[in-house]
Design goal:
Elements lengths: L1 H5 L5 E9 L6 E5 L10 E2 L2 E3 L6 H13 L2 E3 L3 E8 L5 E9 L1 E3 L9 E5 L14 H8 L3
Parallel strand pairs: 1-7
Antiparallel strand pairs: 1-4, 2-3, 2-9, 5-8, 6-7
Length: 140
């Protein structure tokens, strides 16, 4: 099934997302700026995987750039391929992040927030993230 999901026509944008979780179980979520693509949608922090970069290295780079955090990527929690109406398909890898140093510093987002799992479904996440968020919110 994984291979079938990846066989989409056209370009595929590889993206990583860090599911940053504090010891008390709260998750870090970020809201895109009003002038960004998919404006005002919530997401887990992360971004594009550069040419020749492995996903874990991309996650470390992106969270350093976006939030000033030094992270240790954990296990791959999920991988989703989603095609938006306009633009390339997104191949999103969600990585668990329980080990990090620093305090999140909002460098590019409209807002960052720590939320409990049960609050996740009440936020308007990116379309590509919604099934994963639903499972995570329900303990999956």
């Amino acid at each position: 099934m994984e291979e079938a999901r990846l066989q989409l026509a056209g370009p595929i944008l590889r993206v990583v997302a860090g599911v940053v979780r504090r010891a008390d179980g709260w998750f870090l979520v970020c809201r895109r700026a009003a002038d960004a693509q998919h404006a005002r949608k919530w997401e887990f922090p992360g971004g594009k995987v550069e040419e020749g970069e492995d996903p874990e290295r991309a996650l470390v780079r992106e969270l350093r750039e976006e939030l000033g955090l030094e992270v240790v990527p954990g296990r791959l929690l999920d991988r989703v391929v989603h095609r938006y109406d306009h633009g390339p398909a997104c191949d999103v890898s969600f990585f668990e992040v329980r080990e990090y140093t620093g305090v999140p510093e909002n460098r590019i987002f409209a807002e960052i927030r720590w939320v409990r799992a049960e609050e996740l479904e009440g936020l308007e996440f990116l379309e590509a993230d919604r099934d994963f968020v639903r499972r995570l919110a329900r303990g999956g």
